Every structure is written in structure tokens, then in C-alpha cells.
Amino acid sequence: KQWYQRRVRGSLLTGLIADWLGRKWLATGFLLMTGLVNCSAALLSSYDTFIIFRAIEGFCIGGLTVTFYPLLIEYIGAGARNLANVVAQCGYGMGMAFLCFAASYITSWRAVVIATSAHLFFVALLLISNIPESPRFLLKNKKADEAKQVVKIMASWNKVDLPDEFEIIQTDEPCEQERAWKLFTYSRYTCSATVAQMFIWFTAALYFFALSFNMNDVLGNPYLNLAVTGVMEVMINVCSYFFIDRIGRRWCMLVSFVLCGISVGICRFLPHENLHYTHFSVKTFWVIFGRAVGGFIYSLVYLYSAEIFATTVRSSGLGLCVFAAQISSLIAPFVIVINADNANVVYTILFLFCIVAFLAAWILPETANVPLPSTVAEMDAMKYQNYSIFTENSPLITGDVLQGNKDKEGYLAE
């Protein structure tokens, strides 16, 4: 409970700070702190001190979530963001499978914590020495010269020769620093899109963790079942690379919520007492399948939300979404208690949440092959981006639309 509470606070506070101070050094600091706190907690003998260290770790994990992912996405062009997300999220699935393997074969929990935390120091050193600050963040904070140096570094990594006269030119005045509350006050659309994303994150986390905590209720070894879902997440994410750009993020999310609803709906109507082996096998399949699809949604929302929120409020917006997700993570452990009394209630609740999340995802814009919005005004203009799912290229947001010089019909005509 303490861990999730501090993660909620970490995601909210760090999201606001990251949009003000930057992504790189906050992410580096949280990586080092997480590794140090975890390894220290494994050596403690006092339970009270251990709880304090776990609370600090939760805060750091919440901060990592809303700093590292925007740093990753803001480097990548529209055509490669899907690949970057697949690689990042495959790491999560493989980490889940490795954790199950370590927990099943290493008898000491202290050794498990150290084995799964010591590598963070190495990752932090790589981040310090090889990854510069986000050029988008630098440009939006009137640091064009520093952004130019970052682009040169990126060009050298990709073996691209920039012309000698290469310059980063700001075509308009650098925008003022925007705060998170502008997402709710700028327009009805930005407010509804933000609330819809928060609810989608809430549902994705509730579904993901509820089924994860419910692995003891299905057939087989719970460690093996959870490891299998991690491997399935990797397979689903790899397969998604080949169609997520073509049919779009929005439709992938809509179809995924339908599959999740079907999974828990079938489990809802299966008997839960004196199960026949066939019923037990069917339930096990649908729980593992639903948990894997839920993991895919949980990975997709990172990419989808990062592409919807503007650069000026991207970390803040993700902080709000992670806040909503961690609220549901606080609720998810009670699934075990409810499931002991009446398992049908759990699956019914998850089914209803999937329906509402489907409706919430319906109002969001498509972001495949679309440039990242830089300001909240550009984010608001994305309401025109609900194009057909098999369109090769999405329409680009023009400056005239952002400035209000053209109406929707004129924009679509152009």
C-alpha cells in the first residue's frame, strides 16, 4: 500500500517538474535512487525501516514512468515510434518472465531483490554518457543552440551528414511554458481527451493487476502462468509492430478492449465451484489470454498518450494518467478478497469497465504517422485526426487551423 501511494505522488509531482526542468537528469536520478534504495532495503533487518525504503522506491518508480518514456518518444520520428514502443514494451514482458523465474528458483527474497535491481546502476551510467536531453524539450524552452547540438549527435549516431549551413530555425515565437491544468481549461476537447485517457489507464491497470493477482485461481503453477503471460505479451507486441501503424493506435485499443471484455465475460459465466477439468482448462486459457491482451493495452497506452499530449505538458499529462493507473493498482489487491467470496463479482466489474473504456477510447484521435503536437493548441487540433483506419498517410495539422483561421470544412478540403 505504501509503495503504490508513493508511486502515485511520484508520478504527479515528477510530471510537473519534468516539464519544467527536463527529462534526462530526473530519469537518471530516479534510476540511481531506485537501485540504491532496493539494494539497501534487501539488507535491512528492521521492518519499519524496510517500509520507509519501499515507499521511497515507489516514489522513484512513479518518477521514472513519466520521465523516461517521454524522453524516448521525443527522439523518434513519426514513422519509427511504433518500433521504439515495441522494443521498450518487450523489455517489460521479458522482465516479468525473468522475475517469475527468479522468484521460483531463488529461495531468498533478499537475493531476488538484489538480482533484479543491481543492473540499474549500469543503465544509469549508460543514460548519463550516451543519451542527451530531449531536443523537443530544449527547443520549446528557447534553447535552440543546445537542441542543434543534440541533433548533430543524433545525426552522427545514424551516420547522416548534415550540411555545413545546418540551423534549427524557429518559425514562430517560442511558446510560453504551459502547465498541466491547461489540459482541462483550454477547450472541451482537450479536457474530455485527458479525462478519457485517465479512465483508460485506470481500466488497463485494474484489468492487468486484477488478473495478475488472480493467477492462483487458475490451473497450474502461478509462477509459470505469470511467466507465460509475459512471453505472450512479448509475442503480441512483436506482432503488433506489423499492423499498429496501418490500422492505427485507436482501433488497436478498441479491438483490444473488446477481446478483454470477451475474456472476462466468458470467465464470468463459467462455474466457479466443483469445476470439471475441461472448465478449469477453459478458464485458465481465457484468464492467461486476457491478462496478455491487458498487458498489450497497458503498453499501448504509453505510446498513445505520449503521442496525444503536447510537448509542453507531455510529462504532466502522463503523470495524470499514471496517477489514475496507480489508484486502480491500490484497489486491485482487494480482488483477492472479493474473489474468495464471489469470483463472479470480479469478472463482472472488469467486464463493465472494459465497456466504458471502449467508449472512452472511441473519442480519442488517431495518432499513427502524425507529428507530435508541440502545444496544447496543436493537441486540440488533433480532433480532426479521426480518419479511416486503412489510410496510408494521415492529414497534417496546418498552422492556419491552429490559429483558428480556417474552419473544419476548410481544413478537410485542404
What is this entry, summarized?
The chain is an all-alpha fold. Helices cover 72% and strands 0% of the residues.
List the helices and strands and how they pair.
Layout: H1 2-21, H2 24-41, H3 47-73, H4 81-105, H5 109-115, H6 119-130, H7 135-140, H8 144-157, H9 182-185, H10 188-213, H11 222-240, H12 244-247, H13 249-269, H14 277-308, H15 314-331, H16 334-341, H17 343-362, H18 376-381, H19 399-402, H20 408-413
Helix pairs in contact: 1-3, 1-15, 2-3, 2-6, 3-15, 4-11, 4-14, 10-14, 10-15, 10-17, 11-14, 13-14, 13-17, 14-15, 16-17
Beta-sheet strand percentage? under 5%
> What is the residue-averaged pLDDT?
78
Structural class: mainly alpha
Largest sheet: none
Order of helices and strands: HHHHHHHHHHHHHHHHHHHH
Tally of strands: 0
Give start-end ranges of low-pLDDT stretches: 387-414
Rg from Cα: 22 Å
The DSSP helix count reads: 20
Shape: globular
The rounded distance between the terminal residues' Cα atoms is: 53 Å
Helix fraction by DSSP (H/I, runs of at least 4) = over 70%
Detailed description of the structure:
With 414 residues, the chain is an all-alpha fold. It has helices at 2-21, 24-41, 47-73, 81-105, 109-115, 119-130, 135-140, 144-157, 182-185, 188-213, 222-240, 244-247, 249-269, 277-308, 314-331, 334-341, 343-362, 376-381, 399-402, 408-413. The longest helix has 32 residues, at 277-308. It is globular and about 75 Å long. 43% of the residues are buried.
